[in-house]
Design goal:
The chain has 10 helices and 10 strands. The chain is an alpha/beta fold. It folds into 2 domains: 30 residues, no CATH class; 184 residues, Rossmann fold (3-Layer(aba) Sandwich), CATH 3.40.50. A hairpin with a 5-residue loop joins strand 1 and strand 2. Helix 1 packs across helix 8. The two termini are 25 Å apart.
Length: 267
């Protein structure tokens, strides 16, 4: 029985090559790229929620060039010892990290609210079940997953707790206080530190923090990579246009990527 459930009634979806159906007759077509759209209109905040095609393409190009490869390797290294059978990458984007997670779990699901992101992910990787859906209303049965990964997205703690089996884990990845500091200094007059600790209270009392690590590595970004990074992050959209333009026209930038990796266990 599939752990993916109908977003309308909550019953298990039976998979077929062209259509997924539940016992009550609700059906969802499989797109030609191989993904299934389970996002109901009432769960949308706009007509086309999530990252737009330009943002998705910029992130794909930036990540494919290996700039964040140390983070991906670190995440895989922390997940491998858990022995998970099933893994959900919630807010998976275009699937760069999800693709690597196939080495640590037999069943891998990638879910994102952005249809352009899932389309791009599904075109590349066939060994993952790709879903358009909302992390705020996960289309998975209760206690059906061993592991949920949440990279750079607002964690929906209650939903993750619901879909995880007892003893299951959440890997939360978030920018550390000094992440991309020199880039942010170029964009903003006053730079606020990222606050990974702000998430801890939200996980208590449903989860316990088992591990915490910091991953850091230098980045030398030529103009094209710098423009891609600006396009894929929210920083540039919050900066003054003149500061953003000046940074986009810079020949290069040296900065440092710093991430906090927090591993939680479901109580």
């Amino acid at each position: 029985m599939s752990c993916v459930v109908c977003p309308k009634c909550g019953l298990a979806l039976e998979r077929a090559p062209r259509t997924w159906k539940c016992p009550r007759g609700h059906s969802f077509d499989v797109a030609r790229e191989g993904y299934v759209n389970l996002l109901l209109v009432q769960h949308k905040s706009s007509r086309d929620p999530g990252d737009n095609p330009e943002m998705v393409r910029s992130r794909r190009a930036f990540l494919d060039d290996g700039h964040y490869r140390p983070l991906r390797d670190a995440a895989v290294a922390r997940l491998a010892p858990l022995g998970a059978r099933s893994l959900l990458d919630a807010g998976c984007g275009e699937g760069y990290y999800t693709d690597a997670f196939t080495s640590v779990a037999a069943e891998v699901y990638g879910l994102d609210i952005s249809r352009p992101a899932i389309q791009l992910a599904a075109r590349r990787t066939r060994g993952v079940t790709w879903l358009v859906g909302s992390s705020a209303v996960l289309p998975f049965a209760d206690a059906s997953l061993d592991l949920v990964c949440n990279l750079f997205c607002q964690p929906q703690v209650a939903q993750m707790h619901r879909v995880l089996a007892p003893g299951g884990h959440v890997l939360l990845v978030t920018p550390a206080p000094s992440h991309l500091l020199s880039l942010r200094e170029a964009l903003f007059e006053q730079v606020r530190e990222h606050e990974p600790d702000k998430f801890l209270a939200g996980f208590d009392p449903l989860f316990e923090l088992r591990e915490r690590d910091t991953v850091r590595f230098p980045l030398h970004l030529e103009r094209t990579a710098l423009q891609q990074l600006l396009q894929m992050t929210p920083y540039a959209w919050k900066a003054r246009p003149d500061r953003r333009t000046a940074l986009e026209q810079a020949q290069a930038l040296d900065t440092e990527a710093v991430f906090s990796l927090l591993l939680f266990r479901r109580k």
